[in-house]
Amino acid sequence: MEIRKIRFLEPGSPAYRPAFKNRFVYEETIRNPSIGLMTLATIARGRVPDTRMYSESISLVDWKDVLDADVVFLGVFTFAAPRGYKLAQYIKAHSKAVVVMGGLHASMNYMEAVRYCDYVLLGEGDESIGEFLDALAAGREPDFPGVAYRGRDGETVCTGARRPPERFETVPDRGIVVGYRERAGYNTLWPQVHASRGCPHDCDYCAVVRHFGRRVRTRSPESVVEDIRQAIAFHEPARGRRLTQMLWITDDNFFADRAWAVSVLEAIIDSGISYHFTIQARYEVGFDDEMLELMKRAGFTEVAMGIEFIEDESFEMYHKKCTKDDVVRSIRNIQAHGLGVRGLFILGADSHTKGVGARLAAFVEAYGIKGVLIQAMYFVPGTPAYEAAKDRLLHRDWEKYCGNAVHRPARMTAAELQREVICASRKIYSPARLLRALLTRRGTDRVLFIGEYLWQASVRKRMRRELANLEAAELATQPAQIPPAQPAATPAQPAATPMAG
Ligand code: B12
Ligand code: SF4
Questions:
Q1: Which atom of ligand 1 lies closest to the CA of 375?
Q2: Where are the beta strands (DSSP E) in 266-347?
Q3: What pLDDT score was predicted for residue 13?
């Protein structure tokens, strides 16, 4: 078939509504568009020039334009899957476009996703997207590894797993996303760059390591620096400066390949780029004095540490190789080098009891952690944590898998867990702590705390709404009556409601 026009679509939940406050105030769902999908759109445009991407989080979608495309690619994480399915169904019903889904959730749950589209492409799409377009253009069935579709008899056909790409140097063209350039100066949309993939560890709850694999693969330092340069240039307004000059390196474990990490930091220093950086990392980096010094010289101001738990029992239970003592020593050393620590936490381990939210808040206060992301324990089919707890899940309404309690932990009810998350957030982002931040913090640090304070308020609001549902569900269902889990591949209910966006 002739491919004239390709559109990429990132479902947002909820879809974008223009509002002045979006420029300054984080909403419960932060709206940064997907770097992964943008990268694929950039690659596809090399073959078909009329290629653009809509991210529902920031683009006003021109549906006439989407429905006129020959191929529409959708990428979904778990929390966006229901919206993605709804959009895929709508496009299939109203156009002749070939509809293709991919991304972490569609890939790990292709038996579910394939019910809503023509094809699911498994794993990372950097190479498969080109192979897919070639097959389509030649009128061939895509028969290479990593494709799922529904055969004539309605059975799902899968051509097997796909090897991840060794090289992925594409610098995403951020201008390919409709409406991004106009909003790039918003302080709620920050520059982000993804430099490596894969992680050698194997934490039970982690979907990322199952999607990207345990072998660490990296981009060249030159390509990373070029990406950083473009990301900063794109997000800085033509006139004036952003309030928050902070770029987020979004790798899951940037320091896993130490020699490479050093070479990237050196390349940033040599480039002369002057900006602030934040980065996700495990606690080990806190023991690496040379790395911490390099980070400081490169402009890093903080480490966003995947701390997850504050009890050894929980680390052991979920196979996270770490102790509380490791975390504390690491935090102290990072701070001694003049860098801040942000904490990424999980509540709802089977070891957790009532009061864990207050204990977490006390930990954050005691160790001077400057900001947090708190998630209730998360379950993605395909992870060991999911297998272990699937009979205790309250539902599989993926849209709610965005920080809410979705299961019954061993020593609390789901509603109690939800309250613990709300409590921790309220204590960490209290008016008293806001006042202290206003008086003691400076520059980007201060602006970030104000932004997070407002963001956490909207997250708590959403969590309180869900709390009412959890309480009602608990009253109606005793633990023993919770229906048994479906196999991971069971499809979600097809969407009954029409498009909202
Ligand atoms: C940056 C980031 C964000 C940003 C931007 C998200 C975005 N739009 O991409 C922000 C801050 C908005 C964010 C928010 C949240 N996030 Co987040 N985030 C990330 C992070 C760290 C990096 C994403 C990234 O750039 N990955 C790298 C690129 C290369 O990978 P990729 O996007 O998956 O794309 C590749 C492949 O998947 C594939 N692919 C993707 N789409 C498609 C489509 C097709 C057709 C094909 C063929 C292939 C394909 O090819 C791409 C290139 O190889 C990931 C962790 C991670 N490693 O992915 C978590 C992650 C996506 N976030 C997660 C979560 C839970 C959240 C929150 C719910 C957190 C919270 N409690 O608030 C919120 C949700 C917000 C919402 N909208 O509801 C989870 C999702 C888990 C899951 N099962 O889906 C992840 C995986 C983190 C984790 N450790 O589990 N996040
Ligand atoms: S260290 Fe982080 S990225 Fe690696 S497996 Fe554990 S949670 Fe996943």
A1: 71
A2: 276-281, 300-308, 340-347
A3: 65
